[in-house]
Fold these 4 entries.
Entry 1:
Amino acid sequence: MGRKNGVDFMKYLFFDIECSAVSKNAAKICAFGYCLTDEKFNILEREDILINPQGGFHLTDRKGTQGLVLPYEYSNFKKYPTFQEKAEKIYALLEDKDTLAAGHATMNDVKYLNFETHRFNLPSFAFDFADTQFVYMNVVGEFSRQFGLGAIAKELGVEFTEHRAVDDAYATMKIAEAMCKAEGLNFLQLLEKYQITVGRIENYEIRQNTSVGFLEYKQAQERKKEERERKKAEFHVFADKEKRRRAKDGKLKNKRVCFSHPLEMQTDLAKDLLKKAFAQGAFYSFRAEECDVYVCFETEGGQRLKSAQGANARIFTPDEFEKYLQ
């Protein structure tokens, strides 16, 4: 038996939701898949609850462009019960006091539930939830990117049909089980080891999962951001003062030079190169799209470099630029 915040959990409800359409403030649920297990991941129930979304299917990816295809026959959905008609069962599953709910990127699914309760004027859901994606990020110590269900399942050898809600729920369960087996812990012990606080929805408000590791990561990112801003400001002040010593003539007379942001962060190197550029009659521009010469490290890419290329600027690495100035 697991225990969390003084509550004993004898079961886990791994769930996934698919929608026929999602917008900023609305989501039309068409499938609620779940896999109910005991604390040892033995399956007690497994079902795909199909729902009439009362609207057409308009599916895109996260960028809002490429269409997603769900592994269902869309024309059949008009025959299924509505969310209102299935709500009682879904409430009972998620709000059972002996059960901890869990999903993958669970915040999305919880938001969909919130949208539908507003849409049909239903009471708010009230339950705690874990997130296997967030748990995995803590286990591998990587918070800078998200890990898709399919990618983790492939790594762990879990086969399933993506975007079929019940199969996604099953894969979520197998991911949780694999992480627990690797650590020799049950699911709640795994959450405790990584000091993970589960999320909660109540009174239509949602609190996301968090952890000590994630908070430390965010603090470190904030410190890095502050340091970048400090170095950026230092370089800008230097450029503003040093431009008064700009030579009237030279190899770069009246040419606009721009440095990449990573180069500007290398303050000593950037200052030295800028001094030499000013000594050759250059102006300094902070806008890559307006420069004649762009200096960046060889491994760099990104929009700033594309803007410089679009302006037909000459591209140098710092070493190449220094040799050119000599």
Note: The first strand starts at residue 2 and ends at 4.
Entry 2:
Amino acid sequence: MRIDKVLEGDIRSAARLMRDLDDRVPSAIEELKALYPHTGNGYIIGITGNPGAGKSTLVDSLISVYRNASLRVGVVCVDPTSPFSGGAILGDRIRMQRHASDSGVFIRSLATRGQLGGLSRSTFDVASVLDAMGFDRIIIETVGVGQDEIEVMKTAYTSVVVTVPGLGDDIQAIKAGILEIADVLVVNKADREGADRAVRDLFHMLDLRGGVGRQEVEIVKCIATLGTREESGIADVAKAIDSHRGRMGQQEDARRKERAKAHIAELVRGMLADRADATLRAQGGLDGLADGVVRGEQDPYTAAESVLKSL
């Protein structure tokens, strides 16, 4: 059975299951249900931030840190959807190519397929497969769309927000709503001018943030392009992630509960969307309903309600 092969760590079986889950194949969902009791051991880390902040390079270096510690690493890269194929644009996988031959590393790219919040609809599912396979660290890198990426907080146990010096003035920095979700703040490209100022600005914003103060969010400078060299600061990033995990203590169960709630809510929304699509197709699709609205035969709300009544 494919389930047994996945639990044994068979990469091909896991890759096929992930593909089927992304395509919402019913049999794959049944297999995931059987795998779920084997999850809960991998630690999920979310990496998010503004486009161009160096998230993929940071992930690439973190993989090396964890592999040097003999930890198995699974990576879920949520890429933009190709306008031609509908699949993921595999920029992240290309940048992490040097880990391709490492059996202790598995990298999977997912297309957003129009999903908001910086994640793919299948992110939870793929992370669960990696967890069941026995990966110690599961890193989720979001697509990099800016302020809307708060969904990563619901998927990960530790959320890392990456920024860089020179993003703009203080007003631009304060507008970066994704800082609200940070458990660890990373100032990447710290060899650039303005890195120390960026750290000071982040400290100031943490003081303005309600509830959680600066003492609970560590700010780390790094130069991810230097890899695992001592002066890169990558080891400090990994240490800050571990420190957050330690500070969570008994709260880790609460975080897992929040993640489960978010997963259930996402599944409900997804299932309703699938049923709505099927109902629309049965009623002739959106074109027919839109024609009725254009002709003035009904309003958009009545058209939408007619679909919901058929669910």
Note: The CA atoms of residues 181 and 248 lie 15 Å apart.
Entry 3:
Amino acid sequence: MLRTGHGLFLLSLLMLVACGGQPADSSAILQLEKLPGGIEGPNVLDNTGTSAVIQFTSGVPTMCNVAFGTDPNYGALTTMPMMGGAIQDHAVTLSGLTPDTTYHYRITLTDERAQVYQSEDLTFTTAESDASPAAPRPEGENVASLVAGARIAGVSSNFGAGDNDSSFGANNAIDGQPNTEWSSNGDGDDAWIELELAGTYDVHAVGVWTRTMPNDTAQIFSFTVITDQGDTHGPFDLADANQIYYFPVEFTARTLRFEAVSTNSGNTGAVEIEVYGEAHE
């Protein structure tokens, strides 16, 4: 197990290299094929059109990230969470992809001796989307975002018993970033999250993007919304975990509690939760 300070150093080094920087001795970056014990993969799994999982096994424990984009300049980066330190079995989810599009990606690994390994430029093509068209994004401001002054009033749990601002904490559900997500700590159908808006709003739409795992678990299929007035709305059905789905509603509230109703168990949670409405007069 890595010491915390050592792990943070490796993560910083990993991100420096992936983002185009170089360590003091740039010749120390080796080809991925030279990793001790080799590498099995990478394989592209769960290619939904809007997300994909890069899966591989490293011969020694490593920390990793994957840079990706529609050309070899990449532009996006997914980094493994720090919670477990260096590992050998990697499954990195790339989110926010466009269906039927060729993506370039590059894997960067750092072992426990701070040796950096990097793959060549690799490519894959996302699947054509066969999902039913989602309702368009409602007009107006998402008042459930952190930047709009919303906050997490309560949550069933965060993965690893972390705080709301941890790697899989509840704040990720309202940060406006599709590459972060809130994960409960195995709550399944009992997962819930409560948002407090900056004021009282006449709400006309809510949106939820459920998280899922590479093995298609931890996914919410339906949910309800309970207001601070005690009214329950829904259940609302989520067709898949590929995008956010919006639902028209009509109620006035300052706090909204989103509760899972039907899931396939596990670390259920949300990529994003949004709320649209006007300030109540």
Note: Residues 4-125 form a domain with the Immunoglobulin-like fold (CATH 2.60.40.10).
Entry 4:
Amino acid sequence: MRSIFRRLDDKSGQIGVFRGPEGLAVAQICASVTASKPTLIYCEFEPDQDADTLPRLARRLPNRRLPATTVLPSGAYHMLLVEAPQVPGDELLGAVRWRIKDLIDFHIDDAVIDVFQMPNQSRGGPDRMMYAVVAKATDVRAEVTAAETAGLNLDAIEIVELSLRNIAARLEEDGRGVAFLYLAETSGVLLLVRQGVLYLTRHIETGVDSLRDADGLRSELVAGLALETRRSLDYFESHYEQQAIAVLHTVGLTASDQDQMARELGVSVRNVELAALVESAAELDEHAQRLCLPAIGAALRHDKVKL
């Protein structure tokens, strides 16, 4: 169990919950109009995920009446890139539902759907595109039930990509553009974000376990990460006519991995430093930060996916 905990009489903020393959993370952010950065007043990770884990962590929250956002595990939803239907706003979800019914592995009547739009491409691209987020209704209901059972005030259900977008949007390079590579246990996600807007996301088949178990092939796996990142950076620059991104922020890579990525990409590669984004009662080491980051991102949420 890893935790930082400081009881404050906070009046505003949010709670983030992330149930990933490695365990359950809960974070609470206190917002203040006078502070330059929000404050992380509670963050805890439990590797065990029995029925009492979330209620137990929720009881330790400084203020569990705050709005809470729970993050769906990556395997609990599909994220599909589709052409935006040319229909009135109140007909959008229905039109998207019809378009994606053959792209998912369960019946469309059992699906919960939301969408968010991508920026317009600057040249030669297709019509306006959007991401459709599709989850099974049973999985969504399970998250709602778990939050309610724990006594949380569930406000929204988030996805991993958008919770990490909330982290990327607070990095100092966001004005020009941020590349963010996050590695979980067996897979990862690459995000390209500018001014808080998600331009591109890629699923990565490599995770921290893959790198650890690769032995002599680790360099090849890192080279594959660099290639995927380079393709994404080139797409960002050419299709959106954006400036070249000069820094890749990572979570889950060793210093030697970062050095190799920097050589192959020709950009600076550095760890995401949580202390630069939020005030905290204590420091999280790199391992704990990786485990908790989606929950912290959810607690920093400004918009929502209404699954």
Note: The helical segments are 53-59, 92-100, 137-149, 160-168, 208-212, 218-239, 255-265, 286-299.
